[in-house]
Design goal:
The chain is an alpha+beta fold. The chain is 20% helix and 52% strand. Strands 1, 2, 3, 4, 5, 6, 7 and 8 form an eight-stranded mixed sheet that branches. It is elongated, with a radius of gyration of 19 Å.
Amino acid sequence: MIEEFILSILLRLLPFTRKWIYSEKEFLDDIELDVRASNPVSFSLSSKIPTANIYLRMTNKSQYLEAIFDRAILSVWINSDDGCQPILHEAHIISKKGIKQKKSEEMHCQIDLNERQISRLEKIKESKRLKSTLYIQVYIDSSLYDRLLKEVKLENRPCEI
């Protein structure tokens, strides 16, 4: 507790030592990216505009800096009875969201599907073992660091069509 207080004062009083005391790697390690527990990846094929709905959960474990989710590039692969196939490749999520220190935020990403994606999802929607793997590249800003890239691979996440 006292060490945290002293470190937070040093970070404010000595700006030139801030990056030395709290490195970029430490900050990135304090950022966790996952999907929510219930229905994290779902595909809606029956709506007027078929969409993929992905619910990301970003946790900022840093006690010093607010993290700003700037944008992300997302790929989703679906593991079905037919094997593993890409459904979304390099979909862009352009949205800013601030996450305070020691807090978590959820972010809903809705992506329109094209005919090829719809056709593939129609073929595998009856599979008994649907799981998704997400490859995410997230750009994060803070008051100390700009445009940091964090890459995450989330395997075997629930998926619903």
